[in-house]
Amino acid sequence: MTCLWGMTNEELCVSQINRFHKAEDRALLITDRHLYKMDPLRQYKPMKNIPLYNVTGLSVSPGKDQLIVFHTKDSRDLVVCLQGMVPANESRIGELVGTLLNHFKRLAIMGKW
Asked: What pLDDT was estimated at residue 8?
């Protein structure tokens, strides 16, 4: 398993927007095979993992909130806000999208996607 995005504890922290529109502190780790949602208050215990082959697309907000939605085949989308991440006031959306794009391009070239 290779980590693609979210290398240190500070970089992992995001705010998840739950179905009741409330923000909860969560951690996000993306590997070469899965996207993990973890609980930072419980020593980063994984709460949910989504296989990357299950992700059908991404949506990002144009605002300063750095909201990103991971759309899945089963319609159980994961909505997170990168606003609480270190360093403050810097957009991490481009880094995240670029990392995923690079990973899927590499898989397509290798014929594994």
From this structure: 47
